[in-house]
Each structure stands twice: as C-alpha cells, then as structure tokens.
C-alpha cells in the first residue's frame, strides 16, 4: 500500500468542507435532554474473573431512549479512594469483549470504563447490548441505518449512549468525576470526538485514527468500508444524496471537534484507507483546544501506531489526569 492522500505538509493545513447545520447545538441539546428524562439507573454488579490485580463490575445503564446499555468497570484491586477515570469507546463491529482484555488503564492505576456499542460485537470482541430500534432499508452494516433523517440515524443513539456512559462511570464512588478522560480507536475515536463536543468538563481525550470525520471527503475518497456503505446505499437510492449529506452533517467529528474543550492527543496513519489521514487531520485542525497534538505513522494503514500509540498515550494521558 502506498501513500494515497494529501502530502503531510498539506494535511497539516487541510480544512474540511463539511457544512455545519445551523441547529447543530439545538439538535444535540434536545437529544440529550430527552435521554435524561430517563433515570440513568447505573447498576454495578461485581463479577469473578480469576484476575487478582483488578476488580471488575458488569455495568448496565440507561442510554438513548432509556434502552439498557452494557459496559465493564474495572478498578485496581484494593482501591479505596476515588481514582481518575478513563472511559473508552470501541471500534466498528466490536463489543466490550471479556474483562481480561481490558487491563491497560487499570494497570496504570486508573478507574476504567468501556462501553458496549449497541447492536455491535459480532464482528469481533463480542457484545451484549442489542439495539431495539429498527430502520428503513439500509445497506448491510451500521452506517446507513436511518440515514435519511438525523433523528432516526443510528449514531444519534450511539453518541447519546456515549454521553450517558460517561455519566454512569462517573457515578461510581471510586471514580473521580472531576478527572475524566475519553479515549477510543477508529469508530471509538469518532465517538470520543462526539463526547468531547457534548461533555464540557473532560480533562483529556485521545482519539486514535478516528472514524466518522469529514464525511464529504471520506465518503468520496475511499472504497474501503465502512465509509463505502454510504456510497453503496446511494448507488441504489440515487436521489437521496441531499438528505443523506444533511443527516451526516449532524454527526461529523469535525463539528464536535470545533467544540472540544479538553487537551487532545490524536493519531493518524498516512497509508490508512479506512480512515484516510485527511479526514483525521480535518478534525484535528478544527479542534478548539490549543493543547492538542497528533502522532503520525507514515508507513501504516488503519492499524496505526497500535502498541506504539498506547505507549504514547501512557506518556501523555496520566499527566492530564493527575495534574
């Protein structure tokens, strides 16, 4: 695979042409207000895992529409005082998986919560959260479910779940709500950006090769799924382009980034055809907080920095969480 997107010097100044809806803030304020009419009702149930260095809780909370959403909450064993909190969102098709795969941030000394993504998990990891909402005709996958109306779009439910996940994790007495970070890779990075734009008091975010950014470019630049799902939908429904573009504008990570109020560490990979680097830089260049940095992996695809990015995060994130 060779470089296919803009040169790095152009990426550093690239700006998205995504047009923000005039009622973007009102749309999300109304969405979250509706979600909060349902009692969050977080339930933390201790589970036995055979792990001696952590304590694990199976979590259920009320997300969009009051629907039950699952997660894992993991603490270093023997925790007695509130710890800074890391909330993670997972990649496309994946679920929360099993607790023993979620040890990095508890091992670094933090409270940790990972949200299960509704309707996903069969692709990898395994999930436990159904999506009880149906949709009209959609291309296989999640990108086009309800895509003709922003109120019905799948990611309205997911982003709302994510905000509620932060609220649920913060409700645990051993989580320091005042020191909360959001992280995620690929789809999880896109969800992280949404949370950054919707939760005003995070202390840090770390979107790794984020998905769901700069839809006008992403959906026309790459043939790779999941972005290609949008093109395949419009390949059949040829006259729906305008309504699809309008819907996606309410969910573009570029617009959430413009509202980001916490320090941020991004990453991009220059051979990434799944989340092209220009789409990542579109969000990075729009990000509102001046304390922002981006790790660039020149010869990698969507795997990005992998363990090297985790190492970078371990050097960067704790300084923000413990300041």
Structure, described:
This protein has 323 residues and is α/β, with parallel strands linked by helices. It has eleven helices and nine strands. A nine-stranded mixed beta sheet has the order 1-2-3-5-4-6-7-8-9, with helices on both faces. The longest helix has 17 residues. It is globular and about 55 Å long.
Strand content: 15-25%
Query: Which series of helices and strands comes N to C?
Result: HHEEEEHEHEHEHHHHEHEH
The outline comes out as globular
Amino-to-carboxy terminus distance: 41 Å
Specify the biggest β-sheet: 9 strands, mixed
Number of helices: 11
Number of DSSP-assigned strands:
9
Keywords for this entry:
single chain, 323 residues, alpha/beta, 9-stranded mixed β-sheet, 11 helices, 20% strand, AB_hydrolase_fold, AXE1_dom, Acetylxylan esterase, CE7
In short:
The chain is an alpha/beta fold and 323 residues long.
Topology at a glance:
Elements: H1 8-11, H2 24-35, E1 43-47, E2 54-62, E3 68-76, E4 83-89, H3 104-107, E5 111-115, H4 154-170, E6 175-185, H5 187-198, E7 204-208, H6 215-221, H7 227-236, H8 241-249, H9 253-257, E8 264-269, H10 277-286, E9 292-297, H11 307-321
Helix pairs in contact: 4-5, 6-7
